[in-house]
Amino acid sequence: MITILLRRRKITLLTPLLIATVLASLTFPGPLAGGQTIHLRGSGSTFLQLQLTAWIIAFHRSHPSITIEYNGIGSGAGQQQFFQHLTDFCGSDPPLDHSSWLRYKERIMQIPVVMGAVAIVYNLPGLGVHRLRLDGKVLALIYLGRIKYWDNPLIRRLNLALSSLLPHKEIIVVHRSDSSGTTQVFTYYLYRSSKDLWPESLVGKKY
């Protein structure tokens, strides 16, 4: 669930169906006088960026005096800019954690706008059209550095039909280096699926 964070103000919403309308209404809750313009700045989730850009373009066609700029820099950096009052809104893959929500709930709004999934991508050309199966436990062990090769017995056990195709090659783990909501979603999955391996302390926006 991807959310938008907004600062609370008195608002008049003519249509709740378009997030850009919400943003514009938060800044200026009435009709614009002749020649007036509004410029809104936002940043955050890269996952949200393409969809939000499409909404912004469509909104600007019918509201040319309102411009909205969004910079996909990651949920963590987006939240940081938002709480530093550098932007008017931010996009975040996970919503605020409970303690942060209790702290800010009288000053901000959270609006869910997009749903999506996090997928694991691998590159094993020798498998051809066959699909590799990896469960939460195996993924946790890979990201903890305890499974190092593709032909590890635990991986082979999940892929009996592909056992002879799995090479004795080192698994090169790739992950985002910035503060990312996607990383938080993924590490939370590892924690929920493998609590005996992946401690809650490793759940977060950075790996």
Describe this structure as you would to a colleague.
- There is one protein chain.
- With 207 residues, the chain is α/β, with parallel strands linked by helices.
- It folds into 2 domains: 2-114, Periplasmic binding protein-like II (D-Maltodextrin-Binding Protein, domain 2, 3-Layer(aba) Sandwich); 125-202, Periplasmic binding protein-like II (D-Maltodextrin-Binding Protein, domain 2, 3-Layer(aba) Sandwich).
- The protein has helices spanning 19-27, 49-62, 75-83, 98-104, 136-143, 153-158, 181-193, and strands spanning 2-7, 38-44, 66-72, 89-92, 108-114.
- It has a 5-stranded mixed beta sheet.
- It is elongated and about 70 Å long.
Q: What value does the Rg take, in angstroms?
A: 22 Å
CATH first level of the largest domain = Alpha Beta
Q: What is the domain total for the residues? A: 2
Mean pLDDT: 83
Give the CATH superfamily of the largest domain: Periplasmic binding protein-like II
Backbone shape? elongated
Distance separating the two termini: 20 Å
Number of strands: 5
> What is the string of helix and strand elements?
EHEHEHEHEHHH
Figure out the total of helices. Answer: 7
Percent of sequence in beta strands: 5-15%
Q: Order of strands across the biggest sheet?
A: 3-2-4-1-5
CATH architecture of the largest domain: 3-Layer(aba) Sandwich
Point out poorly predicted stretches.
10-18
Task: State the helical fraction.
Answer: 25-40%
Write down the CATH topology of the largest domain: D-Maltodextrin-Binding Protein, domain 2
Largest sheet: 5 strands, mixed
